Amino acid sequence: MASSERLQLEPISVSSPRVRDGGPLPSDYSCDGSAGNPPLRWSRVPEGTGSVAIVVDNNSRTGGEVNWVVFDIDPRTNELPEGSVPTGAVEGSTTNGRVGYNPPCGAQENYRFTVYALKDWVRLRKGAPLNETLKSIADKTIAWGRLTTVHVE
Length: 153
Prior knowledge:
GO terms for molecular function: protein kinase inhibitor activity. By secondary structure, the chain is mostly beta strands. The chain has a single domain, classed as PEBP-like (Phosphatidylethanolamine-binding Protein, Alpha-Beta Complex), CATH 3.90.280. The protein has helices at 3-7, 130-140; strands spanning 13-15, 40-43, 51-58, 65-73, 79-80, 90-91, 111-118, 141-149. The radius of gyration is 14 Å and the shape is globular.
């Protein structure tokens, strides 16, 4: 998909009862905590969405890091409880090769929680290589939205 087409996509609304967009990431969800991923909610997923994916990363000047990839989420799902993965969803590898939520550690980094509406299922195995997973998500994206934190508390 061309970047000009991507800019025209209707954004998904992403929120959290524990994390404010533009605010700090509570330490419970960092490498200093034990809660796992923060709870997320999303809305305005377009009709015809085949599945949903979530990517957590930072957009650091040093190249960034992907802390979590979860895909093949049922398109009728609109929230993710704290420390959980939706039934039937699949987790891919992160930048460090681990599978699952890799808690952010960079206290001064911005972390992005991006929800993608996809036209189809990703259909990769658990622990699939990061580059393969991100390419598949990018190729199937029809809409996306993001919650961004400005540092870790």
